[in-house]
C-alpha cells in the first residue's frame, strides 16, 4: 500500500513543484488575429508621454538602467495612465508592421511599470500575481481592439511569433536587475533597428548577460529559457551572443556553463 504523506509535507512538495515549473518559459505561439497590418497607412503612434516618463525616472548605475518608482509623482502616474489609454484605444492592425512593433514593445514596458507602481513598494515583480503565481505575466494587463491581453500574450503570442527576432528579449523589460535594461528611448518605427542592436550589445557585454570566471561561463537565464530563439544548441547560442559581444568569442567554449538571473526590482 502506498504510504500517504502528511498534509504539510504534501503541500510543501506541491509548492516545490510549482516553484520549479515557474521558470518554464512560454513557447512562441502565434495569435493569428494580430498578424495583420495596413502597410499603406503612413500614420504613426505618439509615444511622447512614455518618453517623458523615461526621461524623468530612468537613471544609470553601473551596468543597470534603473526606474525610480518611488519618485513618480501623482501627476506622472496620470500621464502613464493616459498614455496607456490613448495607445490601447487604437487598433495596431490598422498601422504598418514597423509601427506595430514599436507599439507592442512600448506597451509591454509601460504596462510593466504600471504593474509595479500599482503595488509599490515591492522587492520583486515575482511577488505579484495570484496565489501560487510566479509574477503577474498571466494576469489580464489591458484590452486592445476588444481583446483581453496579458503580458505573456504580448511577448509570446504577438511579438515573438510575428517578428521572429531574438533581439525582442533585449527589448521587453521585466522590471528586474537580471533583465536587459529598459531602453532610455521609446521605440518608434524609425529607431527600432538601432535600439535593438544597442540593447543586444549592451546586454551581451554586461556581466548579467555573460561573464567568465576561470573555467566557468555564467550566462543569463534568458539564454536557457528562450534558447530556441537564439540557436538550436548551446554552441549556436554562444555564436549568436558573439555577434554583439566584444572581446574573446564564446563559441567553442569547453568549460562549465551555468545560468543565473537576478529578480530584484530594477530600482535605485
UniProtKB/TrEMBL annotation:
Residues 1-24 form the signal peptide. Keywords: Signal. Coiled coil: none annotated. The keyword Signal applies. It holds the Pfam family DUF547. Residues 93-203 form the DUF547 domain. The keyword Signal applies. InterPro entries: DUF547 (IPR006869). This is DUF547 domain-containing protein. The lineage of its organism: Bacteria, Pseudomonadati, Pseudomonadota, Gammaproteobacteria, Vibrionales.
